[in-house]
Amino acid sequence: MLLNKLFAERGRHETVWNILRKFHYTDSLSLRESFLLPKFECPANSSVELSPSGYRFFVDLFSLFDKDNDGALNPNELSSLFRPTPGLPQLFEHGESVRDEDGNITLQGWLAHWSMETRVDYKTTLRYLGYLGYEDGMGKGTVSALRLTKTRRRKQGPNGKLKGVGAQGKGGRVERNVLLCHVIGNAGSGKVTLFLNIPPFEVSSLNLCIFLELFVECVFESAV
Q: Which positions ≥6 away from 107 have C-beta within 8 Å?
């Protein structure tokens, strides 16, 4: 910023603009759409998750803005973190996250949110990675923070039923970290209780070991 200020004061405005364009800014001082939303296709029957570098970025970002080192982001810290962005993502603003006794978002809740956001709408995650300054050091851009899951292929039996489904079916190995489940039942049947009693598990990759709750996005629907 100081260097840009000196260039502007000395009348070297074109140099300032060249620097801004190098960092993906347009003439209206907004980030280029091609930078915020790079090409990234998700095939049918696949899903998008955060890669190890994506998780590491969000862990480092959390630690950077956790100024009081209490393991949670209070409203002021959260506001400072999202200052370069248009604001809190919609799911973050209206959704529930794991919080401490003071109502502040913990690292567990922070990572669970971005796992959900990426699974539900990876384009929003890409945009916020751009706003928040993600860099992979390899020139691949923000797409290196995401990974595609293996395409699931289910074959149908002679009766039209999917193989591997049912009491005698043997399902394949689940290699996804984020599962999208639809929980359907009448009011009071225990849908929320089921969701709240999912046991935790440990995620470990590239020396990144974080204790997380198994994140399952549950869409609660009432049976007619």
A: 59, 62, 71, 72, 210
